[in-house]
Structures are given as C-alpha cells and as structure tokens.
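Lecture 7 notes: from sequence to structure.

We start with a single chain of 317 residues. Read the sequence below before looking at the structure.
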Amino acid sequence: MDDADGSMTRSATDGRDLDEARLLYETAYPGDGFRLEHGDGPFSYRYTSTGDAVVTLRTSEFRGTAHGVAEETREYIVSWLHEGHGVTDVGRDETVQTLYVPHVAPTRAYEFDYADYRQNLVHLDGGYLEGLAAEHEGVEPGRLLFHHAAEPGRDALARWRRVLAATTPLLLDAATPLLTRSEADRHLALAVLDTFPHEAGASSPLALVASGSRLRRAVEYLRDHAHEPIAVADAAAAVGLSSRGLQAAFARHLDTTPTLYLRTVRLDRARAELAELDPRRATVADVARRWGFGHLGRFSGTYRERFGEYPSATLQR
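Now the structure, written as tokens:
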C-alpha cells in the first residue's frame, strides 16, 4: 500500500514470502551478500515508511534471520530494537544492540546480523542533516561521523524520547500543515545532533562578511517567505552568503539569529491572524500549526512573553 499528498509519502508492505522480503530489503538498504532465512518459527515480515523528502519514520518487523553488508549511504539512520537481536559492524567495531536504546548506523559500508526483530527507524537526508549541523554547530558543511557504538547517556536519552514523542504524531499525520511538518523535521533532526556523539567539519573562518545590503535582503527574504518551510541555508543562498556568514551578520548587527528572527516574524503573523479571526470558527491550535508551531504549550508561552497576553485572549477580543 502506498499513498502520497505531495509533501508526504506513506507505504506499508508485509507478507510471508522470503523472496519478496529479500527484494524489499535489498531495495530499502542496498548492499551485498544479503542472506535472509527462516528462523525457528513461522516466517513473516512487515515494513512501513512515512515521511517527506528529508525525514521518514519507519518500522521493520522480521521473523527470521538477516545477514549482509549495507553499502555506504547518504542518509543518516537512527534505529532501536523493541524485540530480537541485532549486531552492526560485524568483525570491525562490532556492536550488539541494546533493546530500546537508539544508535546511528555507520554511513560507510558495514556488515550486519539480525534475527527475529522488531525495530523503529528514523531516516534523515544526508544533505539536510549536514546543512543543519553547519548552522547549529558553526562548522563547514560536510559528512558527519557518528560514533555508532556509543549509547546516549540517561539525560540525553530522556530528551530524545521527549522530542520523538512530540514530533511523531505530527510527522505521521497527513493533515499536518507543510510548515508545521518542516518545523517537526527540524526539531527531530536537531535532537539527533544533540543526542548522538559525532564529529563534524572544523569551525570555519568567516570568509564572507555580510554587507548591510545583503543583511537587508536576507531580512526581506525571511519576511517574504515566512509562510513557507524555509531554512537558514535558503536565506543565505538567496543573498550569496554561507549559513555561517549569515549567522554572524545577524549576531553582529541585529543581536539575534536568523532562526529566532524568522520565529519572531511568524509569531507576529500569527498574532495578526488571531486578531482578525472569528473565535467561533477558529482555534489557537489551528493558527499555531499554520505558522509552524507544533507544540501548543510552548507557542502560548512564547506568545505571552512577546505580547504580554495569551493567544486565546487575542482571539477572543
């Protein structure tokens, strides 16, 4: 079963045929030497995928054994087992998976060995996560090296689970507005960067310094496109700067960041909309989601900090 709404795709496949399962998994995870075999009990499999071009949430259930070599990928994949047995990077930095504890799979080719497992996965587009890392960590865009054998600490794991719980309903719901989905993608991807140990490119010198005209054009770009799922990299590219250069220009001249500035613009637009809408036909939640605020409690708190009242008060006036 497959369906799509233009921004989101959804698929689900299941069965009891080993050859069909082999074709499915070789397509989803290209590699060499795949050996999928029956285990001690009846064989079955189920694989689902829901998401957009940058983040997909997936599940994999396989009643049998799976062994092979996954090839180098341009995706970053976070996975965790609910049942069964799994070993990654067999024969090298071999890691036995702990139930319920997520890890990031190697992006280089690696050998794996799994049996009778049920698993959740988050797939992130490589260019998207690397661009976000450049913005978030102040490094040159480039490949990220995650330490796949390292397990998150207790506090990091708790934060990861909170973010996952907040974003998963939005990412699985086909009715989620595009802007809200984009913010959920970003929130989950930032959690990956903050949760799992990794190495990125070295900090870069600011080879480009924004002139006043470039900064003005960047501000105009953010205001003109605030209703769209844009990123800092989009604004930087529009004015001929690196993401790091644009960050520095905002810090130097506006004492803020492009992301915070964009959020402020969206808050202002949400307030203007709330002031115009009929409270009998509109809700604060609808307006918040339309402007990319997926968590109603945080939206209300941020709104009150900026405007001195809760959004419900603006809507009722």
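Residues 71 and 280 are 55 Å apart (CA to CA). Keep this in mind for problem set 3.
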